[in-house]
Amino acid sequence: MLTVRLLVVEDETKLATNLKRGLVQAGYNVEVAPTAELAGSALAEKQYELMILDLRLPGKDGIEFLRELRAEGSVIPVLILTARDSTDDLVTGLDSGADDYLTKPFSFNELLARIRALLRRPLSATKTIIQVGELKLDAGRRQAWRRRRELDLSPKELMVLEYLMRHAGVTVTRNMIGEAVWGADYKALSNIVEVFINRLRQKIDQVNQPSLIVTFRTSGYMLRVDLPTKGNGEAAP
Predict the structure, then answer these.
(1) Which of 42, 135, 182, 202 could form a disulfide with 186 if both were Cys (CB 3.0 to 4.6 A apart)?
(2) Which domains, from first to last, does the chain contain?
(3) Pick from 123, 131, 147, 61: which is nearest to 96 by CA?
(4) Could you tell me the pTM of the whole model?
(5) How many Å apart are CA 230 and CA 31, to the nearest integer?
(6) What is the pLDDT of residues 117-159, one digit of tens each?
(7) How far is CA 7 from CA 16, 20, 48, 193, in A?
(8) What would the pLDDT profile of 74-124 be if each residue is shown by its tens digit?
């Protein structure tokens, strides 16, 4: 585990110290940067597997820093850790390129669970542009299209679609989707995965054509690599 290097971008000294201590005890190699400028220098010099980012930083704030990173093509997983807890702040954070968002005060066990979920994503997740058949997704810009039609997707719908596209042709369980998109909270959200799958179908599928997302009742979902000859969202016989 010591080969997994995390960068904590936090200017509050006590919190940064406690975070580093706890994460090191959990087995991670941790470095701390108190400003966006120092974090940028650290990222230019070393390879990190994940960044934990505060938004209220001296000088350049976290959102501005994150947008610049994504514009430059950085694909490092970013977990925002902030006291900003409004829905608008959460949406702004995710739309700016964050992979997850956790508000202060927080449970350290939940933070660890979210880190594990982000680190479980496969190496293919480093691709910013994903193409599966007629679907195209730009992970950095948080936009998706079917053919030339841009899809009007919410941040969470984009995250579900991105997960399915990165695992196209492979059956993924509800738990796998839940952990990747909602982290430690997903188990308390009942049928939230099914709800978002249905929303996606309404937005990405075409009328009178088979759904791009296959449902396997006992195992989960799969994004088709090619369309079946018949079907309505269930696995074709």
Answers:
(1) 182
(2) 5-119 (3.40.50.2300), 127-223 (1.10.10.10)
(3) 61
(4) 0.54
(5) 53
(6) 888 765 444 557 888 888 999 887 788 999 889 999 988 899 8
(7) 11, 9, 7, 30
(8) 878 899 998 887 888 888 888 888 988 998 888 999 999 989 888 876 544
